[in-house]
Design a protein that fits this description.
It is a single chain. This protein is an alpha/beta fold. Helices cover 30% and strands 27% of the residues. It contains 11 helices and 21 strands. The chain has helices at residues 70-81, 97-110, 144-155, 171-179, 193-202, 223-230, 246-255, 306-317, 321-328, 330-335, 365-378, and strands at residues 3-12, 17-18, 21-26, 29-35, 41-49, 51-56, 58-59, 62-63, 85-93, 119-122, 160-164, 183-186, 206-207, 234-238, 262-265, 277-280, 283-288, 291-293, 299-302, 352-355, 361-364. The chain has an 8-stranded parallel sheet. Helix 2 (97-110) packs parallel to helix 3 (144-155) and helix 7 (246-255) packs across helix 8. The longest helix is centred in the first third of the chain and has 14 residues, at 97-110. It is globular and about 65 Å long.
Length: 379
């Protein structure tokens, strides 16, 4: 069994970037980090754990609501892995109750597949006024059927993130969901700041795609946006240049009272690694100039990868490398109570990336070592 030290130019350990540090690889897994020994194998680039994405609606031509199966989830995970996302939450949006049941069963069957963390349930218990691209006909009050799905998934230890609007969901329901171990996320909501504060007190610990589909911040009413920014809950944000202005992404990150509470999410659809269109609620959504447009001419999810989001955070928003990488790796992992997913040690080399100078994904550690092995064999 191979056992060797690998020394990259720089290394991100899940918290900070370091130089002169190496990883010890044994049997295709990182088992240790430490000072680089003199005999370490050198690789070029910034070594980092792969990206984590808590909001993935589709990929590889598959939209989860339309293909609520184990194979559908596998295709989505495989599509995003090609772009450096090694752990994700497949996300089901507002639909009929049978779709949710089918997706939950698929998530159970998909456990153990590379990169599948659990399930994100986005709706249907949301505000009709702030539903975004979600179909108003499926929006409904919280019911026992959804609670049964969440409870069952948590009983068998499958991570769950559920997005809901607190003004249409009783606070005792928020508390009951939190007690199961599910991450309750505030989103698609027209709530006042006071209602958001009450939901946080009841157990909500996250917010879904900050700024989008939520009541805005004004001078006299902070709304959902202001209440979330002022709080200590985690919050996702989309950084694709379309959903949120780059300047507002930077403002939100800087304004949070506690560091490492902002999470990069893609909100990506079937077009990532797939064709330029997909069907949503029986209607065609098309990719036009980087934007996914539904029948109403509105945004319908995003066509962006976590890798592209990280690049934009650094090169357009102006965040530090460490802040951007934490937003895409260790902070989402911490939000879900899975800190090990955001670290290097005990990770498969397939789940470790090398980034180039412009922060593009150049290879997985497995690929880099295989290429080096091939090069050495031909010399």
């Amino acid at each position: 069994m191979t056992d060797r030290w690998i020394a990259p130019d720089r290394l991100f350990d899940g918290h900070s970037i370091q130089s002169g540090v190496a990883v010890r690889v044994q049997g295709g897994q990182v088992v240790e980090t430490g000072p680089a020994p003199s005999n370490a194998t050198k690789v070029s680039g910034l070594l980092t754990p792969g990206y984590v994405d808590l909001q993935v609606n589709g990929g590889g031509g598959v939209f989860l609501n339309e293909t609520p199966t184990r194979d559908g989830i596998a295709t989505i995970a495989e599509a995003h892995r090609r772009f450096g996302t090694v752990a994700l939450l497949p996300t089901v949006i507002t639909d009929n109750a049978d779709v949710l049941d089918n997706v939950a069963n698929a998530a159970i069957a998909a456990q153990g597949l590379p990169g599948v963390m659990g399930l994100h349930i986005e709706g249907p218990h949301i505000s009709k006024e702030r539903r975004g691209t979600h179909d108003a006909g499926f929006v409904r009050p919280f019911d026992d059927r959804t609670m049964a799905v969440v409870t069952h998934l948590r009983d068998i230890n499958i991570p769950v993130l559920i997005t809901l609007a607190p003004e249409v969901t009783p606070l005792e329901t928020v508390s009951k969901l939190a007690e199961t171990g599910a991450v309750v996320s505030i989103g698609h909501t027209n709530a006042t700041a006071a209602q958001i504060d009450e939901a946080i007190e009841a157990g909500a610990t996250c917010a879904t795609h900050l700024f989008n589909a939520m009541s805005p911040m004004t001078s006299r009413e902070p709304g959902t946006v202001g209440a979330v920014i002022n709080s200590n809950v985690y919050s996702g944000i989309i950084c694709d240049g379309h959903h949120v202005a780059d300047s507002m992404v930077g403002l939100a990150v800087r304004a949070r009272p506690q560091p490492d509470r902002m999470i990069l999410v893609s909100d990506s659809m079937a077009t990532v690694g797939g064709p330029d269109h997909f069907d949503l609620y029986g209607h065609r959504v098309m990719l036009k100039n980087g934007r996914l447009i539904n029948k109403e001419g509105s945004l319908a999810g995003a066509h962006v990868t976590q890798a592209e989001g990280v690049q934009r955070l650094i090169h357009k928003v102006g965040l530090s490398e460490e802040t951007a990488l934490r937003m895409a790796i260790s902070t989402p992992a911490a939000c879900m109570g899975l800190p090990e997913v955001g670290q290097l040690e005990n990770r498969r080399t397939d789940d470790v990336l090398l980034l180039g100078e412009d922060h593009t994904v150049t290879a997985t550690l497995t690929e880099a070592l295989e290429a080096q092995k091939t090069e050495n064999a031909t010399q």
